[in-house]
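In the current project phase, work has continued on tokenised descriptions of protein folds. One protein thus recorded appears below exactly as we store it.

——
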Amino acid sequence: MKRDSRAFLWDVRDAAQAILSFVAGMDATAYASSPLVHSAVERKFEIIGEALSQLGKLDGVLAARVPSLSQIVAFRNQLIHGYAVVNHSTVWNVVHDSLPPLLACVQSLLHELGEV
């Protein structure tokens, strides 16, 4: 049975919201000094990257509407496979610079698809 494209968007939305809640009230120093938080954040980024990778395989037209999808999947691969060292400041910057626009895009797509 084919999975609904919205399910991948729900996964992205839920993981992004979790990341934002994990880092709420933290600064970069607090984030870097908390192995529990940065492990949780990195795991949620892995979920985001995998969900978007699967969305691309299932519905390329919808996936193409997600800005920087290939970079997000590549970031996931770096986190999981260690193709490049990803330091805490890089992850912190992604959380603050890239995650909010991604979350807004996904919420907009879900709204368009009739599920918020």
Summary: The mean pLDDT is 92.
